[in-house]
Amino acid sequence: MENNELTPKQIVEKLDSYIIGQKEAKKAVAVALRNRFRRLRLSEDIRDEVAPKNILMIGPTGSGKTEIARRLAKLCGAPFLKVEATKYTEVGYVGRDVESMIRDLMAVGYNDVKAEMEDKLREKSVSVVEEKLLDLLIPGSGNKKKTESKPAPAGFLTQNSDNEITFDLNALNQAAADQQKKDEENAEAERENHTREKFRQMLRDGMLEDREVEMVVHRSTGMPSMEIIAGGSIDDLQNSMQGIVNMINGGGRGGKKRSVTIKEARKILTEETLDSMVDHDKVADEAKKRVEQSGIIFIDEIDKIAVHGESHGQDVSREGVQRDILPIVEGSNVNTKWGVVDTTHILFIAAGAFSVAAPSDLIPELQGRFPLRVELDSLHKEDFMKILKEPKNSLIMQYSSLLSTEGVTLDFTEEAIERMSFIAEEVNSKNENIGARRLHTIMEKVLSDISFDADEHKGETIKIDAAYVDSKLGNVVESQDLSRYIL
Fold first, then answer.
1. pLDDT over 60 (residue 422)
2. How far apart are CA 4 and CA 34, in angstroms?
3. Is pTM, for the whole model, over 0.85?
């Protein structure tokens, strides 16, 4: 959880590596993240009084709202979930209810904590997995142990009442046979132990990775979902019913025999071993604590459930979704298969283009639960130029890397980058403004011929200059009907 130590400035710097501009949005998100950490430092009597300040991000599509959320997910060690508001329906309609976002967030938290605990136990599991692999390679070798030789009992010599000593040959023969059997068993165990140690060394040296063995692969275990009671969707209901059927049929404990390589077997056995070593109750408790205290949910496309003007038909359902979201955002208890989760201190970040509806078209109560408003700016030529070349995952880097796998080197001149940025701004201004997504379409059109004939240009360096860009996109700039060329 070391990312919780990041200051707001450091969070913005990290976001700057991937997202151009939008300083206000980055600052708001950074402060909100830092406040989660600050609240956890407060004394218990005041900690519960400090509620998160939810954020509403407003901006055109392609301006970076979703990208900020995606990068935020990687930055913060807290449970994070991105959802689309349009996939939820009002209670009573077919579809997912809004409470399922909390169950999904809890599943994210559970998997994160489980992965952390498994990482701590991974080193400890290596020896256990190695023994299981040796059992697969040499079945039964791990069960035989060398037995200690004991002196033969003296029962074959007896003395009668006249002090005469008699000799029982049968008893002596039996003792000799028993001893011989023990010696043979010890010799066999010694040979098998020697073979096992030899295979152990070969296993450690990686000499047996491709050898195939037969093993029983168990299906994923775990309790069936109890979300039937919690009001889940049809999918949740089907998964729950399937889990119950598997449990009744013993499907959770059974398995299927498969022929796998040692490399595959090691992965399967490692997962099974770690799963058995982890304390699932502790995982659930820690996950619930993290979700309640530092969970973050990003609700995208919230403008699509805003009702503009009179409410009728489908709009009634949209307004119902808003009413259902309200108690979740305000703070309520939601049933999950890992226990009841309190949503009071979960941070909600909502985003939408609001090109048709306005934020004021949301129901007043929901507006009040998102007190921080951040407007994202439309992107212009200078922003497009930076997006093409500055971020760590810049488009030029992506396309250059893709074609380098074919032995083709791309050399983009500054004039070419400027020309593509100008065309992106021009098309966005005369058609739908889809922001940075326009650059994907332009790059595809500019490089379509090179990508198609890449195998014929192996070992070549292809220069992309302004003239080359114009040759591919000249018609776009000249034509008034831009939509014919770039959608």
1. yes
2. 7
3. no
